[in-house]
Amino acid sequence: MGNAAEARRSVLEDRRAGEGGARTVGLTKVYGSGGTAVRALDGVTVEFPAERFTAIMGPSGAGKSTLMHCVAGLDTATSGRVFVGGTELGGLSDRALTRLRRERVGLVFQAFNLVPALSAADNITLPLTLAGRRPDREWHDLVVRVLGLGNRLRHRPAQLSGGQAQRVALARALVTRPEIVFADEPTGNLDSRTGAEVLAFLRRAVDDLGQTVAMVTHDPVAAARADAVIFLADGRVADVMRHPTAARVLDRVRDLGGRS
Ligand SMILES: Nc1ncnc2c1ncn2[C@@H]1O[C@H](COP(=O)(O)OP(=O)(O)OP(=O)(O)O)[C@@H](O)[C@H]1O
């Protein structure tokens, strides 16, 4: 076995045993009150298992973003429970929640959200810089290698293609070795070939780096790269499909009505 493979194995064996993933129990989120109240989530119990890739689909307004925001600690539940790894979010102080959000959850957005003035390398380590932490060099280098970014580190975002920019965003989400990475329509701004490449890297984050990924998408082909698809409709879980194929996902999306 080569040095690189050995390094990779030893880094992966370091994983915090028994941690990772996220889940909700009876998660309900109501925006507003009285006659104008909107029940965005209505008793959602779902699991994002550790070291798995899960897609979230559903018609517009089904509650996909709300679910992601509540599990990522960006929004608070009205009732029900949210766990990231072994930690229940409901019991955390604002300060602890901020820390959890920063260090134990990774976020990837459609619009990349890289800092234009910083190199790819500095963008990747930004979450650690903000937290006053030093990168775990071995893990950092492994992430950069698996995402194929070694020769792009000195580039600024404007000098990167869309697919490279999204890989930098993914590396930034992974560098803290979070319990879960949420990707919100990560291929929405990319052409289909580049989108497929980014999906392949999301898969590698799970298969080669042992990370946990949850992805909101409207695209059945993208969802088919996941291990399971959670379908939401009207704030509830309408279905969970394991081992999805694009054709089966498309059928289900049509059953649920409208654009997924
Ligand atoms: N901050 C808010 N205040 C009031 N209502 C909200 C707020 N955020 C979301 N909603 C409502 O909650 C419901 C679920 O919205 P959410 O954005 O989670 O859906 P979605 O499935 O992500 O939709 P899309 O695919 O269009 O992004 C919608 O009816 C929406 O209008």
Automatic annotation (TrEMBL):
GO terms for molecular function: ATP binding. Gene3D superfamilies: P-loop containing nucleotide triphosphate hydrolases (3.40.50.300). It comes from the Bacteria. Keywords: ATP-binding, Nucleotide-binding, Transport. InterPro entries: AAA+_ATPase (IPR003593), ABC_transporter-like_ATP-bd (IPR003439), ABC_transporter-like_CS (IPR017871), ABC_transpr_LolD-like (IPR015854), MacB-like_ATP-bd (IPR017911), P-loop_NTPase (IPR027417). Residues 22-259 form the ABC transporter domain. The keyword Transport applies. This is ABC transporter ATP-binding protein. It comes from Actinomadura miaoliensis. The lineage of its organism: Bacteria, Bacillati, Actinomycetota, Actinomycetes, Streptosporangiales.
